[in-house]
Design goal:
Blueprint lengths: L5 E4 L2 H4 L3 H7 L4 E6 L2 E13 L27 E6 L3 E7 L8 E11 L1 H7 L13 H7 L19 E6 L7 E4 L14 E4 L19
Antiparallel strand pairs: 1-7, 2-3, 2-7, 3-6, 3-9, 4-5, 5-6, 8-9
């Protein structure tokens, strides 16, 4: 990338659209994480769309719960969840209020704050691995449940915000099945990524978890 990322904040209207429009349009945008430790900026390179009531793969498929309430809007907020008893994942809520949908942020390239990210991701051998996968991205950015519901459109200095960044050309955007999604939601080609970007995580089909005897 030779051009400098556009630092114009994304407005709430950007998120107030159908999830399958928002998800690919998030590629190349700059995610900013601000904390007492400093600022980390990340160019988004891989995302997945989850379409609520019409999507068996979505946390909101069976309706509103205490866990997924943030997904029901308003748009432009963060939905953070804890999974497998170990990892956090970061999503951005989009679409009209009361119609739950969101975009899982799967991977990105750290543009600023690499030292902070490296301290949190000691197992990363290379910088391209710092945020390669949703749990790694959340770890690198110090994402926790305390950020659930954060308004990403509230302006400079917010814990999380989105800037216009450098969207890829349309012929660089690819899509395919979502990683690890099984059942009726498995075939949906709602994972989007920037072609040939080394920070994009490898695709893995759903594998049922084995129960211990």
């Amino acid at each position: 990338m030779s051009e400098s990322p556009d630092r114009t904040p994304l407005p709430r209207d950007f998120f107030d659209r159908p999830v399958l429009e928002v998800a690919p349009d998030l590629l190349g945008r700059t995610l900013v994480r601000t904390s007492d430790e400093g600022t980390i900026e990340l160019r988004l390179t891989e995302v997945e769309a989850y379409a609520g009531a019409i999507d068996p793969g979505s946390h909101a498929f069976r309706g509103r719960t205490a866990r997924n309430a943030v997904m029901f809007g308003p748009p432009g907020h963060a939905y953070v969840y804890f999974t497998y008893g170990m990892w956090h994942c970061l999503n951005l809520v989009c679409g009209p209020e009361d119609h739950a949908s969101g975009v899982l942020l799967r991977a990105g390239r750290v543009l600023r704050g690499e030292e902070q990210a490296r301290r949190r991701r000691l197992s990363a051998r290379y910088d391209r691995e710092l945020a390669k996968g949703p749990a790694r991205l959340a770890t690198a950015l110090d994402i926790a449940l305390s950020l659930n519901g954060t308004d990403v459109c509230s302006g400079p200095g917010a814990p999380l915000s989105l800037l216009t960044g450098t969207p890829p050309a349309s012929d660089q955007v690819r899509n395919g099945p979502r990683t690890g999604v099984g059942g009726e939601g498995a075939p949906h080609p709602w994972r989007f990524w920037i072609d040939d970007d080394p920070t994009v995580s490898p695709y893995r089909a759903h594998a049922p978890r084995k129960r211990s005897s």
